[in-house]
Amino acid sequence: MRPEPSRRAFLLLVPAACIGSPRTVPSVAFRYNDPATEFPVTRLTDPAFTSRLPAHYQRVVSRRGNSLLFTSDLGGRIDAYRIDLKSGNARQVTEEDGLDPASLTLTADERAICCVANGRLLTLNSNGGRVREVYRVPEGFQAASGMSVAEDGLYAALVETGAGMFRLRLIKMSDGSATTIAESPEEIRDPIPRPRRASVLFRRGKGLWLANYDGRQSYGLRLAEGEAASANWSPDGRSIFYLNYPPDPKRLHNIREFTPDTNEDKLVANTTQFAGFERNIDATVFAGASGSKASPHVLLLVRTVKRELTLCEHRASDAVMVSPIFSPDSQRVFFVSDRHGKPAIYSIAVERLVTETGADQ
Q1: Strand 274-279 relative to strand 105-106: parallel, antiparallel, unpaired?
Q2: Which of 24, 130, 230, 313 sees the fewest Cβ atoms within 10 Å?
Q3: Three-state secondary structure call for residue 295
Q4: pLDDT tens for residues 152-187?
């Protein structure tokens, strides 16, 4: 097992790493065997600093699975970094104040990185370089946490708040023109454009809503009773997978599938009290973080047999932060935990448990 680097040793490396542009940080990867399963787990970032993954529905891992986007305050403020998953070296890709960690994402063609910083929607070359301001939040409003870019790269959905209201803005990426497609006194968050359709899914209050690009229709979805937590579209955009918290706290949290075109809502599987989850690229397997205090695990849920497999402990102080995601080929799961200090990013291989998927599925 590789010795764990000391905080002092890492801090000595940072000044040298921060000279010039782009900034680079040497690998601090630390591998250990999980106490619960004995599976090898790799901690990718130093827990002396706060590092987080973007929102679970963002494009974070490159199509080839060789790099990962994350945010960290290791340079004294929150900036975006891209880590080479083979070498473990990380390179800073933003130098912006007020970066929203949840907003960071690759575009579908991976030519650019998008984010929201200090009330501005920005794009930059995926390898760093010139920053382009696409849109600026107008006076009287501020950016709320929540932004994502459509699969075709033509539009972004951004949440703003002001004067006691929340509004969902659809922004044209080519010229920055924006229209409001939904408004509410309740909090709006987690906007996700629908693949191959002109609409946006978002969370409002305890439910899920759908708004059309033209702004003419915004409506709540007829979901199962209870609260809808994390959600995402199926790969083809026909249905939504979401985490349901039943009103009876004694009942199990469950993953459900809702089809907007038919209003059909059906159970996918019960879970061991997932606090967050994400599908793999073909929606055959789900990675979840259990909120159980007795079993604080990262798990795989195989859809066909509705069976869970324990990968490792997360032992996070708040299971919501864990937010596990898959690599595009479904051979690795990434998650966040503060078990060793401040929130850090971890990785575990699952190639023996999950069939490899194509990145273009």
Answers
A1: unpaired
A2: 130
A3: coil
A4: 999 999 999 999 999 999 999 999 999 999 999 999
